[in-house]
Amino acid sequence: MEIKANGKRLWHTLMEMAKIGPGERGGNRRLALSDEDIEGRALFQKWAAEAGCTIRQDTMGNIFARRDGKNPEKSPVLSGSHLDTQPAGGRFDGILGVLGALEVVRSLNDHGIETVSPVEIVVWTNEEGARFPPSMMGSGVFAGIFEQDEIYKNQDPEGITVEDELRRTGQLGVVPCKFFPIKAYYELHIEQGPVLENENTSIGVVTGGQGSVWTHINLYGQGAHAGTTPMDYRKDPMMGASRIITELREIIRSHSAAVGTVGRLETYPASINSIPGSVFFTVDTRHPNEKVLMKINQDLKNIVNTVCSAEGLENEFTNISINPTVEFNQDCVAIVRQSANSLGYSHRDIVSGAGHDACQVNQVAPTGMIFIPCEGGLSHDEAENTTPEHVSAGADVLLNSVMASAGA
Ligand code: HGY
Ligand code: MN
Ligand code: MN
User: Which whole-number Å values give the CA distances from 213 to 189, 292, 303, in the listed order?
Assistant: First the structure.
């Protein structure tokens, strides 16, 4: 028999969390392992303890809040996501998954339900990768995809390492960050795209995710005077970058369903009257087919070399992360679909355009995801929004999916 979560309480909890690390336009800025992120984590841990959970933290700062089941020997059902945000992020990306899992525990408490398997809420460290690349970092070390010692050395743009920040903020836990047997993992998330809203569908039954490649490109030319240097004397990396970025759009357009983004572009010395000596920019490319994704990456690398030889530039082309396409566990997908069905929510299968911690956990545990619509399909912007009704429906489906796997 389906039970319902308390959507009103979840919406209020989301709005309380949103007060921490406010952005300039109503969203949030809680970069991974920043003081704001820590403040949000502390509030979550307070709520989880009040809900009767016992809390532990691992050496990547991942937080696990456990609600015991009848049989402590059974592998737990996990549910969660991330609390870190983009620099100009929204109030729901990641946060909905963590606080939705908290709502599951609160609802199980309200209904006096003791599951057979334990249930654990998880907060993964640094899903966004906006401050410390790569993204999905804490879940990636947990799943054995990244080596912790390597990840510890990764730096933010100020040169601060992951390890330093984990220590400074007291997030370096004592439990080794390593996967353990998990019955199932469910993650509730906004779609971050327009499909569900356009189709007026309440729930996305996520069957998998597209692959992605993150690349750092450095172009080196010759710094010189903006006024005295004739155009054909120049080795101008900004001209090189503009040609590469224009060509990138053509490469992407030649593969339907491909997307490509240049999110960061920095010049040195960044002076109005000096031709830059060097330019750095990032490229995020994605596609649902891994072969096409790797072809796009190769085409981009070729374009960089062609433009650099034409412009007299040197370059460094570094793939900093390559995330394969993902297929979620059929049983978990079926449980999500069945929960939405029996609750009477309109639903459709959907492939995720975004990466999620669930994509990493999927490598070591049966994993499923639940999407709800977001306004205009917008995310990774402070205007990110959804409705209390969608949040409530998502929480209901999450609660019933967790109960189906945990045995209640
Ligand atoms: O980049 C992503 O897809 C995720 O939102 N971090
Ligand atoms: Mn997210
Ligand atoms: Mn995100």
Answer: 22, 11, 16
* Nearest atom within ligand 1 for CA of residue 136: 6
Write out residues with Cβ below 6 Å of ligand 1: 127-128, 135, 354-355
Pair 103, 401: CB distance under 8 Å: no
What's the 127 CA to ligand 3 centre distance in angstroms?
Answer: 7
Ligand 3 centre distance from Cα of residue 358 (Å): 12
Instruction: Tell me the CA–centroid distance for residue 219 and ligand 1, in Å.
Output: 26
Angle at 193 (CA atoms; ends 191, 196), nearest 5 degrees = 65
- Of the listed ligands, the closest to the CA of 94 is 2
Q: Which ligand is nearest to the CA of 86?
A: 3
pLDDT along the chain (408 residues), means of 10: 93 98 98 98 98 98 98 98 98 98 98 98 98 97 98 97 98 98 98 98 98 98 98 97 98 96 98 98 97 98 98 98 97 98 98 98 98 98 98 98 96
Q: How far apart are CA 65 and CA 199, in angstroms?
A: 36
Residue list, CB under 5 A from ion ligand 2: 93-94
Separation of CA 70 and ligand 1 centre (Å): 36
Residue 174, pLDDT score: 97
**How far is CA 400 from its chain centroid?**
24
CA distance 325 to 29: 29
DSSP string, 116-149: SS-EEEEEES-SS-SSSSSSSHHHHHHTTSS-HH
**Closest ligand (CA of 97):** 2
Count the Cβ atoms, other than its own, within 10 Å of residue 101. 30
Atom of ligand 1 nearest to the CA of 355: 3
- SS3 label, residue 258: coil
* H, E, C per residue of 264-291: CEEEECCCCCEECCEEEEEEEEEECCHH
> Are 28 and 146 in contact, with CB atoms under 8 Å apart?
no
CA distance 365 to 346: 27
* Strands 203-209 vs 347-352: parallel, antiparallel or unpaired: parallel
Q: What is the DSSP string of 30-88?
A: --TTSHHHHHHHHHHHHHHHHTT-EEEEBTT--EEEEE--S-TTSPPEEEEEE----TT
Q: How many residues does the chain have?
A: 408
Contact at 8 Å (CB) between 203 and 396? no
